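Dear colleague,

Following up on Tuesday's group meeting, I ran the structure prediction for the two-component complex that the binding team flagged. I've pasted the input sequences exactly as they went in, so you can double-check that nothing got truncated or mislabelled along the way. The structure tokens for the whole assembly follow below. Feel free to forward this to whoever is handling the docking comparison.

Inputs:
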Amino acid sequence: MADPLPQGSVIGILGGGQLGRMLSVAAARLGYRTHVFEPGADPPAGDVSARVTRAPYDDVAALRAFAESVAVVTYEFENVPAKALDVIEPLCPIRPGRRALAISQDRLAEKTFLTDIGLKTAPFAAVATPAEFEAALVRTGMPAILKTRRLGYDGKGQVRIAAPAEAEAVLAAIQGAEAILEGWVGFSREVSVIAARGMDGRIAAYDPGENLHEDGILRRTTVPARLSRAEATDAVLIAGRILNALDYVGVIGVELFVTPEGFVVNEFAPRVHNSGHWTQTGCLVDQFEQHVRAIAGWPLGDGARHADVTMENLIGDDVLRVAEIAWEPASIHLYGKGEVRPGRKMGHVNRITGGVTSGRR
Amino acid sequence: MADPLPQGSVIGILGGGQLGRMLSVAAARLGYRTHVFEPGADPPAGDVSARVTRAPYDDVAALRAFAESVAVVTYEFENVPAKALDVIEPLCPIRPGRRALAISQDRLAEKTFLTDIGLKTAPFAAVATPAEFEAALVRTGMPAILKTRRLGYDGKGQVRIAAPAEAEAVLAAIQGAEAILEGWVGFSREVSVIAARGMDGRIAAYDPGENLHEDGILRRTTVPARLSRAEATDAVLIAGRILNALDYVGVIGVELFVTPEGFVVNEFAPRVHNSGHWTQTGCLVDQFEQHVRAIAGWPLGDGARHADVTMENLIGDDVLRVAEIAWEPASIHLYGKGEVRPGRKMGHVNRITGGVTSGRR
């Protein structure tokens, strides 16, 4: 295994939100500095990073200076424009690599990739015209969900379809964007696996967490998930297959639907993931440190968990409850976002719900 | 209880070392920004703080600008010059308050304070001249330790005395500094209590840790300490007595010798303490967050511990062992210090040695 990045090296992070903020803290814990690139003002990550560049993703000079100032570039969100990466790539390594990013940016490419490597997804079909839409509906059945191929998150860019007659209205609603129609998956619950692959190709995974969404936004993750041991193993193997197929370096979040026929892969995110925040309380090496370990060439932590944890997102006005939560035995993480807006992730709370007898296994 | 500091407020930290670094991360986690004041170049805290002022402690203009930019000032070391505090005090609150700082800066004042509030210390006497030295030796017995009253830490500024004849050489060695002679305490081990007092006067304490020193530097802290329940309670009561007597706000570290006659107080530090780093792994609210909670007017965490932990300091070349430790189930904290020097604290490692069945109690 190659030597890890030397102490004091600078890690570049594209995106200055809460994930970049927690990545930055983890990088510091391993003796690295971070340089955050973010178009917006007052990025949460800026409070805990050595340096911030505020510039849009099409500012070539700023991107170039950024790439030249760091030893490796990573990102906290999957919608980094490809053109920005074109500028960075010749100057410094990008981890995880561009293929993972390109696939995850396009729901159609993602579903195609997943089925190509033998994993189950919802039935799907590309849709651009009303004619394609009808054919697609035959393939997916109803109800179905029409999603824009790009830039959707937290339930945005999605329309549910219950009747073929809705086709035109629905296509109008997404304003001619390239779309994918996905069939309905009858699932009893959603779990996610946070896993990582190191530069040496080794893989480590955390125990799967069980996710509860409300209005398309993650509300709560509970670990352990209600899965049999065989199911938990299967979930980890799915994540491993994705990581290997992508020759991936870093942490990935893989969302799985639990169905009577086994797991159906919903999607993966090529980054640290909201449903992995519980690792900050339940593990010696949390997902943020794991990601830094991977991209900096360290051995991965083994993913061992020493406590049962529930992670609750503080969304919008939820953050006002912090005054009460502060009295609880709980670990509070606030993101330093100035303005409270509905649907905005303002922080999260980890609570220990049970213990595991030893941190070693 | 008054309202806590509003989200986004800036906390000023005097000193940019590893304690300031970890305080800064904790402040961010509670939604605050930090501004670090540090005379030295490349302070470890600078990597994770929103702002750094590099200026000496006698730069009145810099101190004034610093104090005017923050909502509250705290410190990561007890040897902040009084004149710097004179500049800050009219402009913004200092927590913990100046009395705790003044007492802890002077070993004679500290021992006097402790005995005045009914706590046991080593026998001691002020020493400035050879004549006083002889009288002091009668009071303390031998062996004894001559310590400078000010600015000693990690075993520096101390001379052990085994015979009265050494008096002149010893006084010469400390170059005429005001000194205190302390009698020998026959102790079986040292424990420390990390405790906190909030703005509402409530006190919370962590379980005492057992400390192992080498060459006058903390090497290892193990929690729980080998104490009976009554002893552990007594240790916490001692810390509580100190906190109340000082009308203290913030975290304090109190070092206690375990003797056949009960606890003897060695010293206290009016700040987060190296022997409290284990709380990062063993508790939902660690000592750094606890300190921020106290000075920002939050309710304190209750100090509950969900795991048994050993904290090992990485001193000087120890840090080279990180390449091996990275393979262990362990939580690594590196301080981002460029130069490895003998005796320099470069990082620490927390290991879980056992579990507690539930995080709630």
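Confidence is low (pLDDT under 50) at residues 357-361 of chain B.

Cheers,
M.
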